[in-house]
Amino acid sequence: MSPAVTALSAPGKVLLTGGYLVLDRNYTGTVFALDARIHVVVQQLRRGHRRGTSGSTTDPKPTGLTSEAQSNTTAAVEDQDAEDTVVVRSPQFVDAVWEYGVQRCDNGGGVKVVQKGNGPKNPFVETSLSYALTYISYVADSKDFGSLSVTILADNDYYSETATSKGSATKGQGARFANFGVPLQEAHKTGLGSSAALVTALVSSLVIHRTMQAADLGAGRDKLHNLAQAAHCAAQGKVGSGFDVASAVYGSCLYKRFSPAILESVGDVGSAGFEERLFAIVEDSDPEHPWDTEFVDFGMQLPRGMQMVLCDVECGSQTPSMVRKVLEWRKNNRAEADVLWASLQNNNERLRQELKRLAQNPDSVTDNDFAEISNFIERSRQHLRNMTRQTGVPIEPKVQTELLDRVTALDGVIGGVVPGAGGYDAIALFIRDDPTVIPRMNELFANYESAVEDDFGGKIGNVRLLGVRHGSEGVKNEVLGQYAGWI
Ligand SMILES: Nc1ncnc2c1ncn2[C@@H]1O[C@H](COP(=O)(O)OP(=O)(O)OP(=O)(O)O)[C@@H](O)[C@H]1O
Ligand SMILES: C[C@@](O)(CCOP(=O)(O)O)CC(=O)O
Questions:
Q1: Whose CA is nearest to atom 8 of ligand 2?
Q2: What is the pLDDT of residues 66-119, one digit of tens each?
Q3: Nearest to residue 102, comparing CAs of 25, 35, 45?
Q4: Which of 33, 124, 140, 439 could make an SS bond with 251 (beta carbons 3.0 to 4.6 A apart)?
Q5: pTM, whole model, 2 decimals?
């Protein structure tokens, strides 16, 4: 019997180095997991014994009941001729409720959730539900889920502040999770990988809830990774490198991507044979397409005396179109691209090795050692600026160059980059873990105004130090106490 409530969380990410390169298996990316996490709480509404497929009339509110109270409710609803429903809420946002009916598809097409009502869609939630329920029903050889209530809670740094979230912080309410007071579509994301953390936490919590125990999380990690990658790719409508899902599952690591062919033939939920194809992907049982992702050093730490911080610039980027343009340029300028890719890979690798050496030999950390880190970061940035010029894509646009240079000039700041795809997302900085550094940065940001004209017409807004730090840990079980007032 599944427990009444299951709670898990998965971390956000920063791709410190390897943006664009990591899309190609010949190169790697260094990804740091963050301590900003997305939490998912799954509650069983009633133990469903499906009697039909007519529309649900059941109150979708979570009961928050003990298992005993729940089985009483079960008895009360068992006779109802109602389809199972899944109600997903993101209570930090206005009207963020998605209600789905659960449909069993013929010919091995799996389990598909179908949104009720005409509200905005959430493809990441919808696809994760369909994928997880398909896998669960195939493994358990049962299509009985009962109705489920799912609550999503995101650490605040995933989104820029809003008037409401600022207010609730100053009044000391909702200390851990802010109320943003706006619809999710209006929240500005800071680029920490909310969708990958969400998909990972969501599919993991459903699979754990229905087919495993919380204690199985460690052993089930590879399968959860494969399922989350499949769901995230389907929801995005493209096969990315998957570094964000990988770090959400395993934590910080050096990442080499999987061969895209592994996920290319899964097909759509509902198509004949979908459940078997998905099962083979999750269980890694297709001899023609074995999972070939490579991780090195997962859980890697920063050197003693060093910290990573992020600064939101209240702007945001269009990653998919940037990726398209860079890949197009690479295709048409292969020789130049190969030189640039090789220089970046080489320098990125030296930076990673130096970070690792210092992390493993804390006694050898001296001021001078961080100077090496500074040099490698500067060199990576030079290559990224070349890439910006050559591709015509704002990977390190001028307003970000200016900001990075001005922060790096502060005493105690080791260096920084525009991580991932670059652009106008939050910047990542390595700083000395010394209490004087943050106040110096805040002083610079308090009246920060860009003095350059951007080469791509971009404009950064308020610069704000986020509270998020390096986290290193992947998906994990959570205790319920921290969600008081939200579930
Ligand atoms: N708190 C949340 N509740 C429900 N859905 C969410 C939540 N946060 C994010 N999402 C889903 O994730 C989508 C944002 O994902 P997207 O991949 O565009 O950005 P990201 O992963 O945060 O950033 P990036 O890819 O730049 O790192 C939202 O449109 C929504 O569907
Ligand atoms: C450009 C790319 O290599 C990194 C994108 O990173 P981010 O979403 O900007 O953190 C794309 C990918 O790896 O899927």
A1: 420
A2: 333 333 333 333 434 468 999 999 999 999 999 999 999 999 999 999 999 998
A3: 45
A4: 33
A5: 0.91
